[in-house]
UniProtKB/TrEMBL annotation:
Similarity annotation: Belongs to the TonB-dependent receptor family. Hemoglobin/haptoglobin binding protein subfamily.
One record GO biological process: siderophore transmembrane transport
Membrane topology of the entry: Multi-pass membrane protein
Domain TonB-dependent receptor-like beta-barrel: 266-696
A Gene Ontology term for the protein's cellular component: cell outer membrane
Signal peptide location: 1-29
UniProt cross-references to Gene3D superfamilies, sorted A to Z: TonB-dependent receptor, beta-barrel domain, TonB-dependent receptor, plug domain
Keywords: Cell outer membrane, Membrane, Receptor, Signal, TonB box, Transmembrane, Transmembrane beta strand, Transport
Predominant cellular place of this UniProt entry's protein: membrane
Protein's name according to its UniProt entry: TonB-dependent receptor
Domain TonB-dependent receptor plug: from-to ranges: 55-165
Keyword Membrane: yes
Amino acid sequence: MQKSPRRYFARHRLALAIASLLSVPAVGYAVVADKPDADSYEVITVVAHRQARQQSEVTGTVTVIDENRMQRELALDIADLVRYEPGVDIDQGGSRFGHGGFTIRGIGGNRSVIVVDNIPLADGFSVGNFSDSGRGLAELGLVSRVEVLRGPASTLYGSKALGGVVSFALLDVDDVLQFSDFGGFVNVSGNSDRDRYRGTVATAWRQGDYGVLVAGAHQRSAEPNLAQTPSVQDQLDVEQNAMLIRFAKETDRTRLRFSIDTTEERRDSDILALLGQGRFALTTLMQGDDWREQQRFVVDQYFQDIAGIDRGNWRVWRQLVNTQQATYEERQAAPTPISIARNFELQQSTWGVGADLENDIQLLGYQQRIGYGFELVQTSVSDRRDGVQTNLNTGATTQVILGERFPLRDFPNSDITELGVYVHDEIALWQGGPTLSPGLRYEYYQLKSKVDALYAEAFPSAQVTDLTESHWLPKLGLMWPLAANVDGFMQYAEGFRAPPFSDVNIGLYMPMMNIVAIPNPDLKSERGRTMEAGLRWRGDSAQLEAVVFRNHYRDFIETRAALGFDPALGMLVFQSQNRERVRIEGAELRYRQALSDSFELSLAAEVTRGYEQGTDTAENRHLSSVAPARATIELVWLPSLMWESRLFMQSSRGQRELHDASGALLFSAPGYTTFDWVTQWFPNERWALSFGVFNLGDKTYWRHGGSRSRLANDPYVPLWAEPGRSFGAAAIFRF
């Protein structure tokens, strides 16, 4: 819906040109139409159809964030990336583990698909207080573009796309080469909110049909600088390194690439806030040393007019993820002083192959665009937890901690096979009239468990289960031009998620705490249905998009739900369970207005409101994953063609009173209003400088994603707050 007002962009052609230089698209990831001008600027999206479409053609809600927006908003991580996007939150892993993923319209975790260059990222896994793998999100310094598709998208993206899809596109040769056949850029940025800084260097060469890209990024950060510093705060040191190497061969009709990218992250933490609290009442020292490495090897090709296929792409990949997390604890205040060393390892190995193809045809008198494709993914997952307890007086050691005997596995080694085949059509019912978009996907899911001695010894009576699921997933969309500048759209879509290995076969046995978690071989697949309707209007100086949606989910899986006390075992039993029903509904509004068409001053206002309500109708409980209403207002000032300045106001309603499944009161974040100011200056075509002040009022407030599902009396409440006033800056030089 981003067709820009004619007079506004006609008077700012140079600013548009510079912005375009900072975000030159790769083939297959175009940002504007092939031959854009000031009167026909149109954002192109890929995520909604797996092929390029004008955003105004999409029967759904898509947010496109290009490289220039990331630069001017000083986005160093994914929390910065969506800070001004109501309806999209970040799953937080606490002060130690960092970000876990995206929550879209109240659905997050492994229920939202994240793809990088069309390759799905590994799922996250966590158990207890000391193990959380996260999802290994992309380093934004190597990202050229991000798209967010809201709502169930299983027809095109398969199982796990119940909440939506977030698609990252990494840098390509064309993103870097802007002046000659050899070039690059250096980008240095930082923010005082967490003492963060990042450096990115990229360079590329082109010789005839061949191109090479080499890029690297390094980022450091620490614990947040809060507006009201608590008496005790965890200490954190985070270091992340990322590298991307690409070889490409391009012809008039094809682009073949071989890519290697790696991301390594280390997080060293000194956990102070928990000391002396609850189960850690006797703990005097706790430190974490967490390391995660992700490696991907990808061969892909984009092509057009080959073998009777108008356009398409195929890809083959291998992805290796290794997570290691070590925790060292001392209990000097215990009657017998001890130390405990814990270690957690998780390996995820994936290979896959997929293709997305498209043809324009005339069939039964209708002009149609048929998309079709498949994806086959094979994943092997294994984990191992180990631990040693040492008597600090005598030096004696034991591998039995709180009744758990180490080493052990939390689930049997698992092989997961996922196969999806889909077809999607766009049928123009008549010239200039409505377009009907039916789609259908067949999804197959298989889980095979391999019990070894390590798992069998820890859980000898566990009922290990293999699982096979298959579903047909339909979708139907309609785009209807109501007037010259007005389009209405609606869609119905279905989604499903097979029970994850960690819910089907999870094991946990802690007799000293009277806790046991047992597998559930009877878990059903989660199913979702969504109805969405919207209106888009484009005027000479304004744009409007309004959307309403309603999502229904059945058999929603609650991970490790408390079943109560079992007298026979004498323990509190936990088991993943299917809920009866979940409903999420809401409305979204986006509006843009050019307030002035003068050369000296231009103003633009953007008002976004996301409102979602979720109710667990089986137990009549509100869902803690659904954020309260939130709005963002952006005021833009362009005093010259080389300089722009933006003022953001974010306002959120307070969270309603919430309780967990046991009835315990959860923390409800109060409402807030904050202001940010960012400015960007383009001295010439090679330099871009950005500066920002965030949380201008130095306000203490909590975002929903960082504080949800936490108990109200948790001592960590002050530490979940967002940083106080901070200053950010960035400089990019292209050569």
